[in-house]
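Notes from hallway chat w/ T.B., transcribed later so I don't forget. T.B. wanted the structure written out for a chain they're using in a teaching module, and asked if we could keep both sequence and structure tokens in one place. Agreed to drop them here.
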Amino acid sequence: MNRFARRLAIVVWPAFLVAGVLEIAVFAFVDPGAVRAPDGRPLGLSDTAIYSLAFFVFWAVVSMGCLLALRLACSAEEINAETIVDT
């Protein structure tokens, strides 16, 4: 497994697991049919669609936290040794 794939797995796998736990915790108390848009209108989505969208939002947010933790765990030498690709 190359370095990028390993770091990607380090970020997305724990985030996936935590997103699943968040999904269970949130929807144990929230009825997906009662979820509304910010302006108060019903979303007009099925319960399955709301569960799915919520899971992906949770996964994205937790992934950002995991990515930040991974970056903060790197030493200055590791960060400075990374190559920057010019586009």
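Follow-up for T.B.: Residues 3-29 form the longest helix (27 residues). Might be a good example for the class.
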